[in-house]
Amino acid sequence: MTIQPEELRKAMRNWATGITIVTAAHEGSQHGMTVSSFTSVSLEPPLVSVSLYKTSRTYDLVRAAGHFGVTILAADQEEISNIFAGRVPDTENRLEGLKVETLVSGAPFITGGLSFFDCRVTQEIPLGTNSLFVAEILDLHSGDDGNPLLYFDQKYQKLE
User: Fold this and answer.
1) 26-41, pLDDT tens digit by residue?
2) Which of 24, 100, 109, 115 could tie 142 with a disulfide, CB 3.0–4.6 Å?
3) Is residue 62 in a domain?
4) Is 1 helix (H, G, I), strand (E, B) or coil?
5) pTM above 0.85?
6) What angle do CA 136, 137, 140 make, to 5 degrees?
7) What range does the domain containing 80 cover?
8) What is the model's pLDDT at position 88?
9) Does the residue 1 lie in any domain?
10) From CA 12, how far away is CA 115, in angstroms rounded?
């Protein structure tokens, strides 16, 4: 049986996820995209993974830079998620006009996010239309409070 992409999308709508922005900066360029395929892989050493579409600008920039940043979005950052998901007209610099911070690598993080992870790519695993990047966490910042922005069944959700 061959599973069609739309069938898989429909089934995956039943999986609730947090929303992150994956960003990278390299040689004066910076870009980012909304990503829900982010996960902790190991505590020792501290490793995470993200899956990026191979034809995206963020994928190209992460490969060139060898590092990326992950911002976990707060419940009030739905508009930022839409910008980075391409739901509003794309611009050369999706980060323009946003307040950002950096940690070690120079990757930008969205101010107001719940947590930041500054990561160095240790492995890229090509998987179909995407590549899975496994990365060591170089530095992180975690806020003390706030609720995450969630995504379920093609809609943003918030914790009660």
Assistant:
1) 998 899 999 989 999 9
2) 115
3) yes
4) coil
5) yes
6) 175
7) 18-150
8) 64
9) no
10) 25
Q: Is 146 a domain residue?
A: yes
Taking the CB of residue 153, how many other CB atoms lie within 10 A of it? 11
Helix (H, G, I), strand (E, B) or coil at 59: helix
Residue 12: inside a domain: no
| Residue 81 main-chain phi, psi, to 5 deg | -60, -45
Give the highest mean pLDDT range of 12-21, 81-90, 108-117, 138-147. Answer: 108-117
Q: How far is CA 120 from CA 48, 76, 105, 128, in A?
A: 10, 28, 8, 23
SS3 of 69-110: EEEECECCCHHHHHHHCCCCCCCCCCCCCCCEECCCCCCCEE
Only one residue has tokens 């611009």, namely 91
| Band of residue 25 on the pLDDT scale cut at 50, 70, 90 | very high
**Number of domain units in the chain:** 1
Per DSSP, the three-state class of 133 is strand
The rounded distance, in Å, linking the Cα atoms of 91 and 151 is: 24
More confident residue, 135 or 158: 135
Question: What is the SS3 assignment for 49?
Answer: strand
Helix (H, G, I), strand (E, B) or coil at 55: coil
DSSP state of 148: B
